[in-house]
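Is this the right way to post structure tokens for a design question? Let me know if I should format differently. Anyway, here goes:
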């Protein structure tokens, strides 16, 4: 009996495989023209990627070293093509033929829902509703809040023991969380400090993203039974409840406020826009609220912490940035958007941090219509999953000298002119680029200005061989460790 069942299973599998090849003949023919590692039946190249999350980037970098700027790999029946040519990356990300997220983003949906980050049919209308809260005019209205919260963190840091090193991220994420709550979430200071389970959520965000990323890249976790046996289902349910409790409180507070008055259009938060649009369900409002909350406060905190850590280790650059602040902004008083534009040395350190710690390590898109790359030599078939390895692009020695070294001078005008401009895409490109690039840039730079006004940053540890943590975005695994000393006689945060 068992032999009959086995024979039937093998025969059914074989027939299905032949049917799949027949129905995907065009895809297979075009895939043959792209180099890549040999693939096993059914599994494809899945075994190659049975590595720890931190090793995933190294694995992709090694495959690019072996096969060049283009290589294919199969994850079961799914064809993936990784592309590291800067000009092709720009062309693909800005093409209307490649306008949907790839299948790995489906693993974000249980917690983040379909929409702006995870993709799906609602991403475009939802993004259109949220976009006005991120434009330059809105960010200008948010500047007083950025200044107030940035000065607060500067005072806190200046009271630290200068002999003791610490992870500055923990202070910075408190600041960015308050800023996001009081701007994009539309909350008052009091409401922002009393949100349901907010501190618990902020402290466990990295753990949540780690679970999501592992599910994306470890194919065995995509098998429901294994996912449950390893306790991942229980963790997922915990995060879903945590996010729902947090966002439900935000939406409830904003509905109550909107019943009394409608805020000014130019400085309206995203939650208010979602509610007033009348086009979104309650669940959609909550999941998109959390998506934009976490991608704004958590990503901004990582980059701001990276900038502060690099300045601590690069005293010459810290002196340049501080002198520039004194000359262009002054030693005190609020920082304006126009003044931030004058801080060219700070901008170079900011960009080098974005290069080193990619906001998105990898981007995946789905080809909806055939499109050619490599000057017409490669045609990407419909259904292909494009992999854009931004982390590797930002460390490609073809464009970056000593890519593992922190060198803000890479972004001096004379060096930028000699480099392919498409080799640096920290906020992605095209209609699905980073929604918060203007917002985050203003927030991060304002934090740095205030911290340098109050403190002198000093190194803790070494920049050599920084270990990275990859969980959707790239972070410093060992923390953003610094020491601080009050500057110019400021004691306990006061002049």
């Amino acid at each position: 009996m068992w032999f009959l069942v086995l024979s039937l299973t093998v025969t059914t599998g074989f027939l299905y495989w032949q049917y799949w090849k027949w129905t995907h003949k065009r895809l297979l023919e075009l895939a043959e023209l792209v180099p890549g590692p040999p693939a096993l039946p059914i599994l494809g190249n899945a075994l190659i990627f049975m590595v720890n999350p931190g090793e995933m980037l190294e694995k992709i970098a090694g495959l690019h070293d072996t096969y060049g700027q283009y290589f294919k790999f199969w994850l079961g029946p799914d064809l993936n093509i990784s592309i590291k040519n800067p000009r092709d990356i720009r062309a693909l990300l800005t093409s209307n033929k490649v306008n949907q997220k790839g299948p790995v983003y489906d693993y974000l949906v249980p917690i983040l829902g379909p929409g702006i980050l995870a993709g799906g049919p609602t991403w475009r209308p939802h993004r259109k509703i949220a976009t006005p809260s991120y434009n330059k005019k809105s960010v200008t209205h948010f500047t007083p809040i950025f200044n107030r919260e940035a000065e607060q963190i500067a005072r806190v840091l200046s009271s630290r023991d200068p002999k003791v090193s610490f992870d500055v991220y923990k202070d910075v994420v408190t600041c960015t969380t308050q800023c996001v709550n009081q701007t994009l979430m539309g909350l008052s200071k009091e409401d922002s400090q009393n949100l349901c389970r907010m501190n618990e959520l902020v402290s466990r965000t990295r753990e949540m993203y780690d679970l999501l990323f592992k599910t994306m890249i470890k194919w065995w976790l995509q098998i429901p039974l294994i996912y449950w046996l390893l306790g991942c289902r229980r963790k997922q349910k915990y995060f879903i409840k945590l996010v729902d409790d947090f966002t439900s409180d935000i939406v409830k507070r904003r509905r109550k406020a909107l019943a009394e008055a409608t805020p000014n259009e130019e400085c309206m938060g995203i939650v208010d826009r979602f509610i007033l649009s009348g086009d979104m369900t309650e669940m959609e409002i909550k999941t998109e609220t959390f998506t934009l909350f976490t991608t704004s406060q958590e990503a901004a905190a990582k980059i701001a912490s990276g900038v502060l850590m690099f300045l601590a280790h690069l005293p010459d650059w810290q002196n340049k940035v501080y002198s520039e602040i004194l000359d262009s902004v002054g030693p005190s008083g609020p920082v304006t958007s126009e003044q931030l534009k004058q801080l060219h040395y700070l901008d170079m350190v900011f960009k080098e941090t974005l290069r080193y710690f990619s906001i998105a390590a990898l981007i995946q898109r789905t080809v909806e219509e055939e499109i050619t790359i490599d000057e017409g030599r490669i045609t990407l078939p419909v259904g292909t999953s494009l992999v854009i390895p931004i982390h590797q692009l930002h460390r490609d020695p073809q464009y970056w000298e000593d890519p593992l070294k922190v060198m803000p001078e890479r972004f001096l005008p004379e060096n930028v002119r000699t480099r392919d401009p498409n080799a640096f895409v920290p906020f992605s490109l095209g209609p699905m680029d980073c929604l918060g690039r203007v917002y985050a840039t203003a927030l991060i730079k304002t934090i740095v200005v205030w911290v340098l006004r109050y403190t002198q940053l000093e190194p803790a540890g070494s920049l050599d061989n920084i270990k990275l943590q990859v969980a959707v975005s790239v972070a410093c695994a060992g923390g953003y460790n610094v020491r601080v000393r009050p500057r110019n006689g400021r004691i306990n945060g006061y002049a």
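Format looks fine. Someone answered above. Worth noting: The two ends are 86 Å apart (CA to CA). The first helix runs from residue 2 to 23.
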